[in-house]
Amino acid sequence: MIRVCVLQGARGGRSALFDGIEEGGIRAASYSSHEIDEHENERALEGLQDRVILLKRLSGDINEEVDTHNRMLDRMGNDMDSSRGILSGTMDRFKTVNLPYPSITMPTVEPL
C-alpha cells in the first residue's frame, strides 16, 4: 500500500513538472529553424570578420617588410656604385704608376 502511494505521488510530481507541455510550453522555449539559421550565419560572419582582420594585419606587415627590404637593396646598390667608383679611381692610379714599367701587367676590373 505504501508503494502505491509513493508511485502515485511520483506520478503527481511528474505531471507537475510537465504541466504546460501540451499547451505549447516546448514550442515557446525552442527556436525555429529560421532563428537557428540566423544564429549560425552570425557565428560564421564573426569568424569571417576575424579572418579578414587577421589577413589585413598580415598584408600590412608584409607591405612594411617589402618596403624595408627595398630600402635596404637601394642602399646596397648605392654602396656598390660607390665602391665601384672608388675601385675605378684606384685602378686609374695603378695605371699611372705602371706607366714607367710597361712590362708589368695590371689586373683589370670588369663591371658586373
UniProtKB/TrEMBL annotation:
UniProt entry tagged with the keyword Transport: yes
Species, as recorded: Eruca vesicaria subsp. sativa
Location of the protein in the cell: Endoplasmic reticulum membrane; Golgi apparatus membrane
InterPro entries xrefs: BET1_SNARE (IPR039899), T_SNARE_dom (IPR000727)
T-SNARE coiled-coil homology domain span: 35-97
Keyword Endoplasmic reticulum: yes
Protein name: t-SNARE coiled-coil homology domain-containing protein
Protein family: Belongs to the BET1 family.
Keywords tagged on the record: Coiled coil, Endoplasmic reticulum, ER-Golgi transport, Golgi apparatus, Membrane, Protein transport, Transmembrane, Transmembrane helix, Transport
GO cellular component: endoplasmic reticulum membrane; Golgi membrane
Function noted in UniProt: Required for vesicular transport from the ER to the Golgi complex. Functions as a SNARE associated with ER-derived vesicles.
Domain of life: Eukaryota
Membrane protein topology class: Single-pass type IV membrane protein
A GO BP entry: protein transport
